[in-house]
Amino acid sequence: MLLWCQGVWSLTKNIDTPAPSETPPSCGLKCIQQVTLATGLCPLNNRTCLCTNAQLNQQISLCVQSNCTVRDSLQVLRYSKHECGVPSRDRTALVWIISTVFLALGLLAFFLRVVSKLFMGGQTWGPDDWVMVLAVAIMIPLNGLSYPISRIALGKDIWNVQPNDITQFLYIFFWDELLYLGALPVTKISILLFYLKVFSKREIRLGCWILIGLNVAYFIVFELTCIFQCRPVEGAWRAWDGEFPAECNNINIQGWAAAVCNIVLDLATLVLPLRELYSLSLSLRKKIMVMMMFCVGFFVTIVSVVRLNSLATYATTNNVTQDYVEIGYWSTIEVPVGIICASMPAIHSLLSVVFPNVFGSTQRGGKSNYANLSEPTDPTSNPLKIPSKVSLKPAIRVQKEFFIKSGRRGDVSYTDHELLQIPFRDPNSRLSSEKKPTTPLESV
Q1: Among 70, 230, 297, 436, which residue is least crowded by beta carbons within 10 Å?
Q2: Ranges 277-286, 294-303, 316-325: which has the least confidence
Q3: Which residues form the CFEM domain (predicted)?
């Protein structure tokens, strides 16, 4: 993996945006001349007319597609855009800045989760945490590859990218797809394992195991489908120009299927514990905190839905390096936010220790805050609770011991006496008014 990452990084070096050609390829120049003369829509020396006449440009494009290779067509398009003064679009910074910001947020959430679990006490490191380690390990290269992929092509118009760089872009994008499809179910499995730790109700636990199985199936099915989207596999990044023989699936439908299934699993994971949480007798503050955690979870689902809009051009556009920008940055938002959502219970537990007045539990004791979510806080739940003897003792307990000695010089004898300790009196307590001697002090 390290060698592969070094290889990807080396691809980003010495990348030059091609300067517009002085003249287009011969096939393109021939189409421009023949179509312009045949239609008579514009004179050859009228650049303004040649650039603005939509009917003429459409017919020239059809001619170029029929008579030029894909690589030559891009060169013709680059020449025409330059001659007509069309500004180049560059959204490369948008790609890597968004990715870097959310990578940092995801890592921060995971760091706070680790601190809460390992150093604050009251919680144990469990299977959900190990699965989250795997999710973070996938998130790092997923978001980290946004920088080299934007340096190569993503965010630029395809006609301003060298053909070899397009191939390299599609190669990195192929790996990004695999990482994205792996991170989604792994994150949900971590959340479901956390549910198993918190909830003991049979129906919820059964639902958790069913959803874990479905997420494992999602991982296997869509990872394999993505790997073998083209036959041979390298056709996924080499068949774009039509010069590499490959047979590929309908990648657009494949992308939609993966996205829709992911949204369904997201909603099922969020809805599963709601009924149990609703039936708990929680204080208003706890209810608000629980709802905030679930709102973050619903935000992940909203991101998935918004990302669907970008799939309209997935594998169907002729300008992949520009039109895949939205797919790219929404994917690098969705995965870190999912990790943040899964880490929020542990983060809340940490904050309740650091800022007890704001995030602290209304209950005291050494139990984890997770357990407190299922404990009733209604004071009427135990109306006959009587203070224990321990609660009647003062905060500072003073104990005095005395001994009495008598005797004669030369013939010493001692007389021992037992002194009774008087219990502390609480004027507000009925029980404290009873004078009951405690165990006698040990005689000296």
Answers
A1: 436
A2: 277-286
A3: 20-85
Instruction: Indicate the domain borders of the chain.
Output: 19-83, 92-359, 398-444
pLDDT, averaged across the chain: 80
Q: Return d(Cα 255, Cα 89) in angstroms, integer.
A: 26
Query: Residues 227-246: pLDDT tens digits?
Result: 999 999 999 999 999 999 99
What gap in Å lies between CA 186 and CA 172, rounded to an integer?
A: 21
Q: Within 10 A of 235 (CB to CB), how many other CB atoms are there? A: 16
pTM recorded for the entire structure: 0.75
| Per CATH, domain 92-359 is 1.10.1060 | no
Give the dihedral of Cα atoms 82, 84, 89, 90; nearest 10 deg: 20
Cα dist from 8 to 84, 170, 343, 412, whole Å = 35, 12, 31, 96
CA 242, 246, 251, 253 dihedral sign is positive
**239-246, Cβ contacts within 8 angstroms, sequence gap of 24 or more:** 240/70, 240/166, 240/167, 240/170, 240/320, 241/69, 241/70, 241/71, 241/163, 241/166, 242/69, 242/70, 243/69, 243/70, 243/71
Distance CA 215, CA 225 (A): 15
Three-state DSSP at 382 gives: coil
- Express each pLDDT in 130-158 by its tens digit: 999 999 999 999 999 999 999 999 999 99
Contacts of 41 (CB under 8 A, 6+ apart): 49, 53, 55, 56
